[in-house]
Design a protein that fits this description.
By secondary structure, the chain is of the alpha/beta class. It contains 19 helices and 27 strands. A six-stranded mixed β-sheet has the order 1-2-3-4-6-9. Strand 11 (385-388), helix 14 and strand 12 (426-429) form a beta-alpha-beta unit. Helix 2 crosses helix 12, helix 5 (117-133) packs antiparallel against helix 13 and helix 14 (413-421) packs across helix 17. It is globular, with a radius of gyration of 27 Å. It binds beta-D-glucopyranose (BGC). Beta-D-glucopyranose binds at residues 78-79, 140, 187, 266-267, 292, 402.
Length: 734
């Protein structure tokens, strides 16, 4: 009896004890509570000073937490192709850590060229794991600005010219990153479609172009990808800087799309306290208050959202309610990431990440030309292979601006080819040199171009085949942040070099590393052309696997290659349309971006959007739909057969384009509405099924300021590229 009483008393004490520990644990630290409850409680504990301190940077890449409450700092890092090295507190310069060399994944143009959302998920997962391992809260990427001209220095960081393709690829990337308890930061919102005058250019365009072309990928990132943060862009839109643009941030992003994450400024993209407070910015990042590039101890307290904000709050100029909205968002991000109980631990430079990087590279490489089935070059076929060109050995992960990476390793094309074909069969000659990488200026090579070319021509003369590895690089005025290219031509006299090589050897394969379209005066004379982007750590292995036929290429172009620069829509309207006049730019190309322009104006591109060859062939069956007449709320089921009609296994990206022939407004001749990458064994046939909503065919109505789906005829076409249409079916919306 006595024992039972003692036992009961002990249990009672234990329960009391547990309850009191629970009661003492503040809600914000209780991982079993909902994020919203934790946010509210944490907010209630903060002083005005602590709240303001969370709204601006404390170092180059971090912002303050609340030390006394154990709320951690936010650590951001670029993005989007690998996790950037650690830099000094106040400098862009690498801090010399020895544990921060990452895996470089292929550039986003390559990812997009895979037309495979599963690859985007794998990409996101892997880069998210690397960011998590490095203790980053926010990964500064992915980028989804639309490819408007082939000159934009940052196209390589984006997903091409089509809003639908970019939307489908960005969503899984974000989901993959965020599974790791690391926030993706989608950039650059919005209309940062050129680097020339990026800090000041004022973009004007119609609402229709805004909603139909430039916003969909951001909207998908927010609503489907559920991105936890977004980065404002440097440029202005309708007179207001995008980092504090009322229409973009308050009305569209936060009100219309219900974005509940953090709006982060681009680095040094804030210009005004009043607008930063009121127009939707939450977190101001940058180097100093007056811009991007100043290094040295920076008065973070002088940021627009620092002391000036605090003073304004104290004087009653700004309301605490608005500040609370910003801090809630920042806390929400912290609870979703660093303070989440479910946050995994990540991993860094794992063999699986290399595998992912290689797979994406292989799926993104686009075979542009293959005369008389010149490729693949089976191992053992040739005894002497000349590899010519600087990009065969140059690091292509370094440079380009903020996406520059310090990598654990990078397999160059030359090394990849040597491992594949054997050292004794390969002879290498540089052929041209581009000079050192400098973010702000061109540093030309001091070596003599003629002698480099002569040596390469001699090497080519005695070879069975020439693999020319060239293109652009990440130097200033190439594919690089802060400036655009000057023309579409290949730089560093490569056209002359290729022509000279062709004079002594007719078996020339051109392998291009670029994130942009280039002109190709030698196109008719070379045997094959391979578009191989910037492929990251596994570049050489992926290229060698495709050239040798171990991998059958299946990438498709995520943007059109024009025959000449003037064929591009933005350029066609003169300086006011690109690059702008007196800091003003009007998107006169409106909704006719990329293939929408080529189609409508009946201009033949050099290579169309969605184009890419394979070592096998595919034949398409006739397209059919489940019905002929649909209501505006219906779902449309499309199907057709696809056969691998060749002798080897391969994958085809089947595309669905939709047209509205009798619309009340101008509509592009056709628009991509679905695609599917289908892997088929030689001889295999599959039925491809695609589903779209009737509403997906709507246009943005300027008059009603809403999406309108008209009744009447719509035509669906299955296609292998934007110019290779296979069959069509006509349906009615009633
Ligand atoms: C770029 C951003 C980048 C940031 C931080 C800016 O110059 O525009 O894309 O994330 O720097 O490096």
């Amino acid at each position: 009896m006595r024992n039972t009483r003692i036992f009961c008393i002990s249990i009672f004490c234990l329960i009391l004890c547990l309850n009191s520990t629970r009661a003492q644990k503040p809600v914000y630290l209780n991982v079993d509570e909902s994020i919203e409850k934790r946010v509210e409680q944490a907010l209630s504990l903060l002083t005005l000073e602590e709240k303001v301190a969370m709204c601006h940077a404390q170092s180059k890449f971090s912002s303050k937490g609340v030390p006394r409450l154990g709320i951690p700092e936010i650590w951001t890092d670029d993005g989007p192709h690998g996790v950037r090295e650690e830099v000094y507190w106040d400098k862009w310069e690498g801090a010399g850590w020895t544990n921060d060399s990452c895996t470089a994944f292929p550039a986003l143009t390559c990812l997009s060229a895979s037309f495979n959302p599963t690859m985007a998920l794998e990409y996101g997962k892997a880069i998210g794991e690397e960011a998590r391992y490095r203790n980053k809260t926010v990964l500064l990427g992915p980028g989804v600005n639309i490819y408007r001209t082939p000159l934009n220095g940052r196209n390589f960081e984006y997903m091409g010219e089509d809003p639908y393709l970019s939307s489908r690829m960005v969503v899984p990337y974000i989901q993959g990153v965020q599974q790791n308890g690391v926030a993706a930061c989608v950039k650059h919102f919005a209309l940062n479609n050129q680097e020339i005058e990026r800090m000041s250019i004022n973009v004007k365009l119609s609402d229709r172009a805004l909603y139909e072309i430039y916003l969909p990928a951001f909207k998908a990132a927010v609503q489907e990808g559920k991105a936890w943060s977004i980065m404002g862009s440097y440029n202005k839109f309708r007179g207001e800087y995008c980092c504090h643009n009322d229409l973009l941030l308050n009305r569209i992003l936060k009100d219309e799309w219900k974005f509940d994450g953090v709006v982060i400024s681009d680095w040094g993209g804030v210009h005004n306290t009043d607008q930063a407070v009121k127009n939707g910015l939450d977190l101001e990042m940058g180097t100093s208050t007056n811009g991007l590039t100043t290094d040295g101890t920076t008065p973070y307290s002088e940021y627009y959202l620092a002391t000036p904000y605090l003073q304004g709050l104290k004087s009653g100029k700004y309301t605490e309610a608005l500040l609370n909205d910003k801090v809630r968002r920042i806390l929400r991000l912290i609870f979703r990431t660093t303070m989440s109980a479910n946050r995994p631990f990540g991993r860094f430079v794992s063999p699986e990440h290399s595998e992912t990087a290689r797979k994406i590279a292989e799926e993104g490489i686009v075979l542009l030309k293959n005369a008389k089935q010149f490729l693949p070059i089976i191992v053992g076929k040739y005894t002497k292979i000349a590899v010519i060109g600087e990009n065969a050995t140059r690091s292509l992960v370094i440079g380009g601006g903020s996406s520059s990476l310090k990598v654990a390793y990078e397999v160059s094309p030359l090394n990849g080819l040597i491992s594949k074909y054997g050292k004794n069969r390969i002879v290498y000659s540089k052929g041209y040199l581009s000079g050192d990488n400098d973010y702000k200026k061109v540093v030309s090579s001091k070596l003599n171009t003629d002698s480099l070319r002569n040596v390469a021509v001699d090497v080519a003369k005695n070879a069975d085949v020439v693999l020319f590895v060239g293109g652009l690089n990440k130097n200033h005025l190439q594919d690089s942040e802060g400036a655009d290219r000057k023309s579409m031509d290949l730089p560093f006299d490569q056209d002359e070099l290729i022509t000279a090589l062709l004079k002594v050897n007719k078996n020339v394969v051109v392998i291009l590393n670029t994130g942009n379209a280039v002109s190709m005066p030698w196109i008719n004379d070379v045997s094959a052309i391979v578009q191989s982007w910037y492929l990251g750590s596994e570049a050489g292995n992926a290229i060698a696997n495709v050239l040798s036929g171990e991998v059958n290429p299946s990438g498709k172009l995520p943007f059109s290659f024009p025959k000449k620069l003037e064929d591009n829509a933005a350029i066609a309207f003169g300086n006011i349309s690109y690059p702008g006049v007196d800091n003003n730019e009007e998107y006169k190309d409106d909704i006719l971006v990329g293939y929408r322009w080529f189609d409508t104006k009946k201009i033949k591109p050099l290579f169309p959007f969605g184009y890419g060859l394979s070592y096998t062939t595919f034949s398409y069956g006739k397209i059919t739909t489940d019905k002929r007449i649909y209501s505006s709320e219906d779902t449309i089921r499309i199907s057709f057969t696809l056969k691998n009609s060749g002798k080897i296994d391969g994958a085809e990206v089947a595309q669905l384009y939709v047209s509205q022939p009798n619309a009340s407004v101008l509509r592009p001749v056709k628009e991509l509405k679905a695609f599917k990458k289908v892997f088929l064994k030689a001889g295999e046939v599959q039925t491809v099924e695609m589903v779209i909503k009737a509403q997906d065919m709507a246009f943005y109505n300027e008059k009603t300021k809403s999406w309108t789906l008209e009744t009447g005829e719509f035509v669906m076409r299955n296609a292998s590229s934007a110019t290779d249409l296979k069959s069509s079916v006509s349906i009615q919306i009633k």
